[in-house]
Queue: 2 jobs
Job 1
Amino acid sequence: MNNTNLIGLLIALPLFSAGLLLLLGKAANSWGHIFATLISISTFVIGLLEFLAMHKRANENRALTDHLFEWVHVGGLQVDAALLLDQLSIAFVLLITGVGSLIHIYSIAYMEHDHDRRRFFAYLNLFIAAMLLLVLGNSYLNLYVGWEGVGLASYLLIGFWNQRPAYATAARKAFIANRVGDVGLSLAIMIAFTQFGSVTFDGVKAGIPHASSAAILGLGAMLLLAATGKSAQFPLQSWLGDAMAGPTPVSALIHAATMVTAGVYLIVRSNFVFDASSIARTLVVIVGVITLLFGAIIGTAKDDIKKALAASTMSQIGYMVLASGLGPIGYAFAIMHLLTHGFFKAGMFLGAGSVMHGTNDQVDMRKFGNLRKYMPITAITFGLGYLAILGVPPFAGFYSKDKIIATAFNTTGTTGVIIGLAALLGAGITAFYMTRVIVMTFAGKARWEDEVHPHESPALMWIPMAILAIGSISAGFLLSWGGALVNWLAPVVNSTHLAENKDRISPILLTLITLGVVLFGVIWAVIKYREVPESAPEKVSIFTRAARKDLYQDAFNEAVLMKPGNQLVLTVDEIDQKVVDGAVNGVGKMVSGLSFGIRKIQNGYVRSYALVMSVGLLMLLLAVWLVKL
Amino acid sequence: MDISNYLYLSAILFTIGIAGVLIRRNAIIVFMSIELMLNAANLAFVTFSRTNGGLDGQVASFFTMVIAACEVVVGLAIIVTIYRTRRSASVDDASLLKR
């Protein structure tokens, strides 16, 4: 079997399916969801085959390049459409198609009563195709196509219920915030082209040693800007909370398998850029630390179960970005956390969807309580994801998050202490808000309204949740078995390159400290939320109020970006109306006025024409006569 | 006889023609004035032909006569049609195209 040809199929299959379902329209209503799910599963099978084949090959032969066609050949710019399947891509391919397929299966039941289910599945497949193109492109330009495709698909899915104006606005907000990041990526591509004459990963990597440090810093900063847009990092994170407007499976897909992981992928894929510029790396660390605290603090104040989970995603991606700013070993831990997070966050989002499914689409956690009695499977799978995100051994998060905290602590100088403590604090807050979610939803007294009759979801929904829960238990252990992932990624990110730093604190002690902080957060939340009032308390500290308002990020964006932008547009419009239109209309008016006057000469009297002609002739003769004279 | 007398006569006839075209309203009279101008030109042609001893001027005057004949045919037809429809042969009344 020729493995190279199958790589293109990975993208072509879901893309074809999306196009087919959209073009066929209602004709595909009865079988569209099954078809899309089968396509998604078949991409997972292909991914698995590729992985097994890659595993058999020697380490240095593992990366495959599939040259598709000559794409842009203009002057010095030579870009081919080519796919690169290496150790990093395959990890993403398996995550995207695997978790994506589970979400497809779940959606069959979740979207059963939606009359537009076929369109939903077409978009899901489009999302998968775009994300696969993003992780498989062998150059920044190929990646950019997938990058934009992901932006489009997320826009379509967040605004899937666009009959609700608020949801359509949320979709536009996500799209616009992403556009800001996209500008970063396109600038990065331009910098890469002017500096290295190439936009392929290999070409840029080869050019890095000869480039000026300013160019590398610019490239790194622009790539980071791109990543903050797609991965909802500070300062472009505000779209993520509103993105919860989409159907819950979409949230799971965006948060676990696609979209937000793209930024982390971009940074890790561009590891050679960040390795060459310590300032760019510091920027990455700063963004990561701010976001992980930001997201965690927002998470503590949200009563909407999906928004609390969204804030949690923001925070966890912050951990990944932080890790990818910590040098070669950090890249591997970032990817490890990304993979384990894919399992437990997808599981928890599907769990939240299941809770909504059982309670007439209620999302307010103050209207839940004691659901574990009525939805035992959802409670158990959600609980396993909860243990995983807390980093309780031996669940998945323990292997990935603890490594990140340890790596942060071991960074040289006082920075190490600061970012280490920040990461530790983040872990504590994570424990607090996740416990809050669990306690408010599944424990305590029942607070739902009388007409709500909570019930367990059908098998099509809980089986994917169960599979993800198993992943939440085992993924971390499997991925770190004998340094499996670290060694696997070594050829791409150089992750076995030994860190020169010694351990600041012994790993066991640090694990104990982390667990202590986590336990403290858990106990605090349990005590604080033993009693949950039916409506959110009004008298709260200024911090809670700020957290409820997403730490005023929206207000800030509005005051600093939106209002001056609006003013600028109004001014430009005024200028256009008065100056540009004035000039154009003025010329028109002048010509028409002139012709109005000239028109009078054409009076229709033959004799006056004859007179004009005679006088003209006479004058001509006179002139000739005068000249002759 | 002095050759310039013929030319004076030609100039006078031409002027009368122009005056007729400009002053009179009746299409028939205007038409006659145009004929007068054409013949004034013919007279000048023939005079110059005689003076120079060539035949070119005479040939030109024949052409003018032929064209004048054609013009009469078309022009009179138009004038008659206009008169039939509008009951007027005044050139000032035939100014519909300006609207």
Note: The CA atoms of residues 13 and 40 of chain B lie 6 Å apart.
Job 2
Amino acid sequence: MATQTKVSTSLMTGNQAVVKAALAVGADMFSGYPITPTTEILSEWAKEAEKNKKLIFLQTEDESAAGFVMIGGVSMGKKAWTATAGVGNVLMQDPLSMAEAMRIPTVTYIGQRGGPSTGTVIYSQQELNLTRMGGNGEGMRIVYAPSNLQEMYDLTIKAFNSAWKYRFPTFILSDGYLAKTYGEVNIWSLKKSDIVPTDSAFLNPKKQPNNIRNCFSQEPELYEHLLEDFADFDKISEEIVESETLGDKKSTILICAWGVVASSAKAAVEELERQGISVKLFRPITMRPFPVKDLQKAEEGVSDILITESANGQFGRIVREALYGASDATIHRLYKPAMGVMPEEIQAKLKEVIHGKAK
Amino acid sequence: MKSPRYPDTIKESSKPSNFCPGCGHSIILKNLGQLMADMKIEKKTVFAIDIGCSLLAWDYYDVDTFQTHHGRTTSTAVGMKMANPDAIIVAYMGDGGGLAIGLQNLIYACHRNDNITVILVNNTVFSMTGGQMAPTTMPHEVTNTTPNGAFAPEKPFLGPEMLAHEAHEGAYIARAAVSNPGQAYSYMKNAIQNQIDGKGFSFVEILSYCPIIWKTDAKETIKFMEEIKKTFLVGEIKKPNK
């Protein structure tokens, strides 16, 4: 964050951190439908809205309604948001595809749970494709992936600012582990200049009437509209993309991981360093737009890449596409769909890779 | 003699009409435009519309208009009203959008007594997609998906009557027909006034013509309207006590 003046440190869950950050950045309307592991967003927001009458809250009849209520609120100038997970994320694509088509700023917090179907209520990284790309569209979305509790707070603030600055649907793509974990979170003081305002409502009866639609009658009309959005998205992507590369920059072995698995990979890298084994870690912070150049830079001089994730290659495909034609490194995989990835497993897998290389 | 003048709420570019010849939407929209002008609420109103033939009204008025997704107009309208209680929110949809895919959202808006006005146009069929069965299709009515009347419901869905069961004191629920535009106008007026008075949910179903899908000439169109009015009873179904 631009101005980091610590106000306090509090013990809270990931879900609580997200609500606190949303309030700090000026969110004033929330609509949602209960689903594990993000239900506490509703109950925490309801508690806040009960105390502060300026905050709007609606527990809707389903996820789709939650999303459309959010969009209705945004159209009238509110900083509205929602939260969901798993099959709820699937239903939420109805409103979110409209937000994407109409460039409506929205913030959606996702706590990934196992899939497909109802899966588990606990943890996964299987909603990456869905959240990045949505359904019948081209993924004109901004997706932040926190890897620890502090980032749950910090990236939520960033998500709200990006949504209203760039006017694309924006996501905090978390998971059940981060949502439910208790830990210390630093609360920063935000100046007015740290917060992107909602500007005016795009529907404002008192002003010049605005007729807006998402349905076009001719192919060229839609095509032209899409080309404009793609151009805008490409232009802002440079400003938005974020990543980190850790460990020994000169190592020939690169781990690629994201979200909470990146925290696990980080622990593995640190432990291996202690053992005198040098590896590096590339971790995208924005999953969409994807930091392609940063990844290509991290890959320089690398002979082996280990991709690890709690899904069966959803992240792996993004990494391989980003490196296509730019890398001849051997790809190794540690895919554990809907399961956590422990630092010990990553260490073991890396040792296997190094051992294989030595042969 | 002066030629009849459309109210300023209706854009000149809306002529010639986007709707098929004989469509009831034009009658309803003209009356709603006149009503907004008469009530002087065009600078306070947001018009939210659904998918289906209703979407053709997206640029009909010089009034804020938001064309949403199929069945989701009610939810979007609810969000608008919560965010801006001073605005008058009119949600406009067909029988498919309101009583099929969007029924859950409609019932809940009624159940919560959300202070919005819903106008639902019932022509007994899905027209935009070429004439399939709707929740309001009559027994034995022939559509694309009810060939020779097969698969048609034994009885059509009575939206206003169903909503009246769930409605709170203060809600306004009525059914009109385009064959009597004056009555449709006054029910829509009562509904919007109910919202202005802050009494809660208001709903008007309007029986409408679809001669293209019904495959009826002018005479038969009027006749079918008179027939469906025997099932879909026109009148004010629920009014606030005071």
Note: Strands of chain B lie at 45-49, 64-67, 88-94, 117-122, 125-126, 132-133, 172-177, 202-207, 235-238.
